[in-house]
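User: I've been going back and forth on whether these two constructs are worth ordering. Before I decide, could you fold them both?

Assistant: Sure. I'll take them in the order you sent them. The first construct and its structure tokens:
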Amino acid sequence: MSNIKIIKPRVARETQDLQTLSKEELIARIQKLESHVTQLRNLLNPKLTSNKQGNKPGSKVFDHKKYAKRHVLLQVAYVGWDYAGFVVQEHTEKTIEAELFKALEKTRLVESRETSNYHRCGRTDKGVSSFGQAVSLDLRSNLSEGKGVFVPDGHQAKVGNTDEIAYVGILNKVLPPEIRVVAWAPVNKTLSARFDCRQRTYHYYFPMANLDIQSMKVAAQYLIGEHDFRNFCKMDVGNGVIKFHRRIIDIQIEAIDNSANSYSMIRLELKGQAFLWHQVRCIVAILFLVGQGKEEVKIIQELLDVESNPRKPQYGMASEVPLNLFSCTYSDEDCQWIYDAETFQYVISGYQMLWTENIVKATMLREMLDSLEKLAGIKIENQLKGLVHGIEPKTYLPLMKRQKCESLEERINAYAKRQRIEVTETKNASA
């Protein structure tokens, strides 16, 4: 690592590049950035401002300046299987974040995303679910004082009110059935859902199949503590991620039900302060190989030894469908979640409908499988097929003998080369 010279902040690199550009090149760069900003604004505000909150022609425009604001945390649960991920994306509106802000604007709890002081705790990918995603933002408030309440310049507070807006109930009435707000908490104005989170807990669910769960438990213990996890993630050098040390606080693998057959469901619980891109799914994929007897327990130690093994062997990640960001934890002093019985009844009832739909399908398939196995007189323990991406080879090739990905140094050099080419092309285009 001592020979790497490109570990400079991206802003510093860009500033240095800009100083070498001519006036015409700078104008072209500014025009390009302005076009990109306009594109992003259109993404966040796809409709005209006058109509984005559903105002009918001739109706009175809602005046946010008649209210104070309150900085809060929201606990957001969602079944993400049919969504393109949590974060807003340019090519689709089918994201959790997009639906959340539609609801926030429709209920007039925020005027716009840009003015909401918004932070998210986790960036869950396509197909990933959550029970405890947390977001922090400024919402409209009925109060004039209290934790997190403030009056922006030009605003006026509702004096004399003692009841806060029923944030959770209002939002759940307009959110899609897969997405629910479970609780809210008033917090100090400086608290960030992302940067002040003390612990993130992920759950991953899978059938026992033919797995040796005990071997997986032994292997998992080597992951606990602070390590360089570059061989257990997808490197994101393009976004400035060049350090891969993370600390896993605990990892547990336990049966969910009391049955002991290949259809029994297992839960892997992984706790840490922060995680790398695809880190959990890579960890699960390797533990599956250990549980299937294809790799020894020591493979975990070998992959964590980045001095001896700086290049990640190629392997398929575990599926995103069983992954759940189950909780985001904050200090009790910072955050006291507020729950209410009416919300629980509404959320439980809605998720019971989703559970019924899926358990009926699972039960039907299980009965068909039982009948097939009786007719064939055999037991097939192939339930894991489909939970790991990639084509399963006929002959298994051990991880450490497989083709390796680029090392961190090679990725950084490749990225730097691409940046130099882009700058050269920009100069030539404006010449």
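The second construct, handled the same way:
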Amino acid sequence: MRLPTAVLAVGALLATTAALPAGAVRAGTGPAAAPGPFVEKLADTRLDDEALYFVSYDGLVNNNSFQKNGVLTHQGYQYAAWYTADRSAVIGRRKLESAARDSRWQTVKLGHRLKSDDSHNVISMGVSKADGRMHILMDAHSDSLFYVKSAAGLMNDPGGHDWTAAGFGPVQTTLDGLNLTDQFTYPQFVATPEGALQLSYRVGISGNGRNALAEYDGDTWSVLGEWSSSSGTYTTRHGSSDRRNMYLHGIDYDTDGTLHAFYTWREGNGAVMCAPGGLSNHDTGYVHSTDRGRTWRNAEGTVIGTTGGSDLVAVGDPGTVADPLGPDHSLMNQETQATDSANRPHALVSYVPGRFGQCTTDYVRDRTADGRVFHLHKDDEGNWHKTEIDVPLDSTQRTKLAFDAYDNAYAIMPYGRIVAASRASGWTDWKTLYNGRELNAFGEIVLDETRLAQDGVLSFMYQRRSSGTTPSPIRVIDFALPR
């Protein structure tokens, strides 16, 4: 096992195992203990010195954590997507020649410019392994989508293809002629174990929307259908609501082919809240699918919804609440999720705990002052566990979750702070490993989940703070983790 020399945070446990390769046994001591969490900065590279900058919904269009695959790695190349100062949609790539050596980013403009100053209108990428294409969706918030796909083979043989605009097709407002909805938001691409590419998206609007899936088989897109319900009655001591939408923390396959989804509900009627100015989000839910998203099961394995059917996953379905919480604590939507090496589901959630009061009246002020992040996970017996990360959120924004090869957990908090907990502690010993001050990051980061899975490097995109609409640098930073 190779341990970096310039470690930012090392536990005493590391000192006893640093000279041993993974799985080795020191004479007379039995099996070597797994290392605890640490990070070592490898590189911090520039994508664009003048990326588009404006604050909307307290976020940036280039760095929203729900921007699944705003950065991705495939076949030894890393790709990133952003809007540059002239509002052009740009895709960049670089060859990852070694973990500690970065190569120059090449960029391509896609022939589309952002239509409005709305931070929801992110760019998301996906790869269909069957035909080697990149798929790109962008610039939508409860309205029409913009779609581009690359030439076949571009992603499966990147070294054999020039990185130019000629490698991409025209901008479309359908998926190759397939109309999804005229109220499209939150595109998230996810690859199935067989190599098909699925698309998760929302139909409708905040407080009255449904999650849906489409699928690309290497030749044709098809709609699988909606799978979450916006109907039903939800009641608190303040009032009731009869419409809502499910906000996903993510949608991801584990190594056994199970599709996992954590979520929160947002009610369409603010009467359920103790006061205006908060968030009508409530409860952290969890469902999973063992048949590629066709049916959905609760934590106990009972089918509670069918994609494209009449019985959708609904607010009152039994066995779906992993962590109950009312709408008076400014619970954030679309936070983060991941699975560990044993395919146990984990999530991070953030809100204002009850010790700071039982009624948030201004979610920006209250989350910034008193917000905290909590780690949730389900054990092998099916029980849910929850631990507070004892680092003030100091932000309205979201945190991302990652695991290293030893199942140590890493929370990448707003401003690029990295906080971690060891598997040995049961993920209870959360400590700050990297304070992020040198980044001058605005807030949320976009995590390269694919690079983490492929080579164990923690790599994320961030944008530096600016003011007004003055463009600012956007960059990708890489950290080594225990291997």
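Notes on the second construct follow. The longest helix spans residues 363-370. Residues 58 and 206 are 16 Å apart (CA to CA).
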